[in-house]
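Re: the 436-residue chain
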Amino acid sequence: MRIIKALVSLIICFVLSSANNTEIQEKTPKVDSIKPWVKAHKYHKVSEALGKFKTKDSLKKLHRLAQNEHCVPLQNAIQAAHSLKALRPFSHISKTSLVQTAFFVETKLPATTKHNRFYSADKRGIACDVEYDAKTKQRVLSLRDSDKNVIGKGAKKVVMKAVLYDAHHPQLVARCDQSMDDRLEYKITKHVQGGPGVVKILGRSHHYDHGKIHNVLFCKYYKYGSLSRFFFDNLKEAKFTLKEKMGICHNILTGLEKLQKNNIIHRDLCAANCLIDINNGSKQNRKIDVVLADFGSARFRRDVTGLLPEGHSCYIAPEGVYYDEMSSKDYFKTDLFAAGAVFHWLFYEKQPYWLKNNIYRNGESKSKRYKMLAEIVEKQAGKRYKELKEKYKKQGYLSRKELFESMILKMLNVDPGKRGAPQEHKLYLEQLMQGL
């Protein structure tokens, strides 16, 4: 009886499978049917038909047709589909859907790209949204509302993975989306482009969609995210050598030096806004790249007076409590203090006490907050700095590690006039790193 039931089940499965295959074959048009449209360059007709091809066999025949008819847009679209499928954001989308989307990019965009454009996946019947920056000529493919693609979320901004379109070499990028006006952020970031230390901007988009304003910046994608992720998530890659720690600090100081030379105050310098990338080399020779990012709070020096020194208030230097009395030049020192707090965390591999306990927002008077913050910083940084100075006086030298430590502690001096400058510390690090 069991054998008979099993045979009946197999027969039913076979019949259903045959019916489904027949249905697919009936619904799927023959590739040869679009040959006249390909020859006549009626690409809108080709695009409509592409969405109906569902099988792998159809894709092979499409490729053959594109080669025989020397249809470059279709050849590029098929190549792009293979390349895009290998990238994580699009791994769940069928290749035929990706061919249709890539064909849209190859044929539709060139005729409609005098200005920045946004093409909704819903309205165009394609696999993902397409954004175009008329200035840089960059085309970006993005998937909305996918938690898997979210890199980070803030109060004003959402950062997601997207793909910079190229038929042969598509590239993962970070898509930074916000509703607030981003023109100043874009202007400042563009002002300091070129060279290390600052996140690379690849393009920009501005559009309305689903009743919302979207101001979007496309930046280089940093696989490992921010330094704060390393600090909090205890990643295995986070075990940095002394040389690597020095290199990370050197990168950040290079970016800060570039900002200050251009009279720009970051105003939100923290571990979360230091992006990090690590190549796949061995532990002994891996290359680490760190950049300053998120210039949403940044201002030119002429416009900074009277503003809060840091977006993350726990990174505010003691004198920042009296920000309404600070001159524009004073903000250079509060940015340097914030960088010092990041370096302190990196060096000791432990979050500084004043970052864990946000004294700036404890509700006390300004004088009490200043006194409490100054005392804690002095206890955690100033005391050790004095010990190292005394040690140097007695024995006439310090180890390389102690000299590095001393530089970081100097940046956290309660007296802003004694913190030094980015260029000074950068050159000092270069000397320390020689021979490492």
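The radius of gyration is 28 Å.
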